[in-house]
Amino acid sequence: MEKGNTTTKSLEPNVSRRTVLKGMGAATLATAMNLGGEKAGAAKAQFEASQQTNGPPPIKGEVVMGATPHNCGGRCVSKYYIEEGVVKRIVTDERPDKGLKDGNDPQLRSCVRCRSRREWFYRADRLQHPLKQTGKRGDMNGFVRISWEQAFKEIGTGLQGIYDKYGGERVFASYSSGDSTGWARDSAKHLLNTVYSGFAGYRDDYSWGAIDHMASFFEGAGYTPACNYRDDAINAEQLVVWSLNNLESIWGTQSGWLLTQIREAGVPITAVDGRVSMTVDTVADDFIAVMPGTDAALITGMLHHLLTKRLKDLDIGFIKSHVHGFFDDPEAASYHGDVDGYTVPVGASLSAFIMGNDDSLVKAGLNKATSVYPETIGYCVNKEDELFGKRAPIYGQLPKTPEWASEICGVPAEKIRKFADLYLDSKVTTWMGTGLQRNSEAEQGVWLGRILSTITGNIGHPGAAWGMPSWSYVKAPGHGMNTGDLKLSFYDYDELSVPKEYLKNGTDKDLAAFVWLDNVENDVGASRWNDGQVRKMASYKALLNFGGNVLLNQNGDVNLGIEIIEDRSKAELIVTCDHFMTTSAKYSDYVLPGAMQMEKPGATTGWFGNEVVGVNQAIAPPGEAMTEYDICAGIAEAMGKKEVFTEGKTMEERLSEGWQKLQAEGYYDISWEEFKKEGVWKAPTPPLVVYGEFFTNPVANPLATPSGKIEAYSKLLMEDFQARFHDNYDPDDRLVGGLIMDAKNPQGSDSARFVYPIPMYIPLVEGRHPDGSKYPHPDLTESTPKGYTYNLHTWHLMQRSHSTLNKVAWLNQQYKKDADGNPAFISNKSTSLNVWEEGVYESVIVNSDHEKELGMKTGDKVKISNDRGAIYASVIFSQLVPKGYIMIGQGSWTELDADGVDIGGNANCLISLRPSRIAKAMTLANDCRVAIVKA
To answer: pTM, whole model, 2 decimals?
Structure first.
């Protein structure tokens, strides 16, 4: 062992940033930094000074086709120019470019992220040797360099000891997303399945856990809400991008290009967002500025307008035949023969709730009674929880008028009406992003959006759809590894009134992805968040974290996570494989240097496209770094089972076999070698429209919901909550009129619930309504008396993908600042393995109206804090964010100073780890109160 030898040599010095700056452009720089006036002019001058007047140097060397896929959904083409084994230049797709009206075969252009990878490959602080923690977890001085042989043996036997003592259900392969070649976490899973006896998995993911969960109930989808293929939006009369920022988060290959193509084709674009994003600023014809987390109130107000002022224009017959529970129907019949009695009680329908105590729909013969729902809702939490006994308004008896919605969401009432009319009078495609469901009441807006689109007929037609654009259907060659988990079941099927086959998203198998840390902290019978399934499970004892920074950095309440992870009596073995010393790596027992994309072979498909993109190996990993596959093969060999793991196959051979199999079946029309040379294989254009058959004849083509329809009232949703061992009895309130809503609930038929079978607006735990609201937001956490008067909101920066690329100096200079507000970055020549360095701060944006009251100016170093932690940042004042909000890009790496303040500026140090109400999904976006002071 070499005590304290945790620095690395410089890999490739004198790397230029000109290519990256040129790729961004002066206008993009100014927009990304939210600069204006004098500072924008300075940015433009700096950009122009960086350009080479005689053009770029000539391109030499070997050309290797590739990509560097990570979790932005883009699988964009990169061309690598290699000289003597070193990457000298990266350019992007240079094939002919055909727009939507020219043949629809666009170049798969990479953005600044992938084109900055040269600096990422050759940073001097890259991990190059296996490290072992000999001290307390998190102690950088405790890491020692060890040999691969020692690492393989100790990790292999350590895992075996945990399997022998506890079993595979106590071993967890962590959620990760930093490497989308398929080798990182899949190699770890294959190891646990072949050398050992399986592992505990998770359902859903961090990005759209609530979307997935709700879609499985309201439309019977196994994944996200079904939407037309994204190219179909050119057939719309209006495109709405709702909580979607394609020009900054680069949500799939060519997502920004597609938006501009659609707009240039004459389709107007409306953006619904909580800030003026780059997408809003660049392509939106209209902007619906909604207060973050209040989308459900906005949609509810739109539905009220349609049910009152536009009732005669609604197709009532269509709604009744396609939407279950929009109106009362105590005698509803399912389209499925194996479902009986799946009805909608009087006064319990969604429209009854929207109308409150207004009886106009009862008089119209559409409902049987006015709303049975109470005025408030409680929380299914432990007695020790700060929310125990507290209540939030759900306005059960109040008509949800546009005026009511306006006071909550900040959108003028007249604009709410016009927006609702747009949906009814036009053919609208809505692309839904994921920001609206990253909060404590994540599920409601997603559900209401599907109902809005359906009752207005925006389903099943060309140009008429709602949801995330249809997922890529293209087949990648695969690697033939065994990655399936143990599918642990903790579920009470007796709670269900319908066959269990109607559970479409695995809620009866595995934990929700976001609550794994709750499981690590607590053994059988306990859960910090009162999660019923966590209470039934024994805690994880081994954590394998390959290719991700979720272990600590990308979770909420980082300081709580550190407290849990530091305790070796909980997780006894933590192994991280990564490229850099991230926050998660720092708190691991073993840190293994992995190979990056383009240092190993691969093939990948994008989220929404119809291409397979090759990831050829262009260069060798530095130092002793290895591919994840070879690392796991080494562990297998130490346990005497290498052949069981590899089956005698290299990575290249596994991919080649997968390709040849599909080629033999007639799927691919070129060979593996041809594909590697071309770099791209494109499948035929898919069907553009979803739900067409259901729209035409729902009786013959029912959905996979218990009713066979889109469900505005989902009895199964409430039963599933109870089947996951959550007590759904709220003793502090009663339904209006003693309604029998769920006979299976042992606590009584008229009790109020923590989860209802309809969507509604529920204020966020730490959310905000506009100042002066007649419907004030309850101060549920008593945060305002502590001085936490601002709300923190995070978004996805274009300069990194979650926490991936955080240390690329070329990108950092566009948004990170020094203590004086000047551009700053951690040098690529630094050999320190510290997670982060003092003097380099994240930018945080605050509304300009707060500048005087805070006594700050743009460029000042600030401290943002609450009870969960504190971070340093550099402030920018701008009108691009709403009053009362502090907005900061998510994904920076946490590094705590001696006072416990995060110098890396990770917003997750401040955000709660509390999961969402129903899905137990990730809540890291817009549900956090903070204070801000000059540092």
So the answer is: 0.93
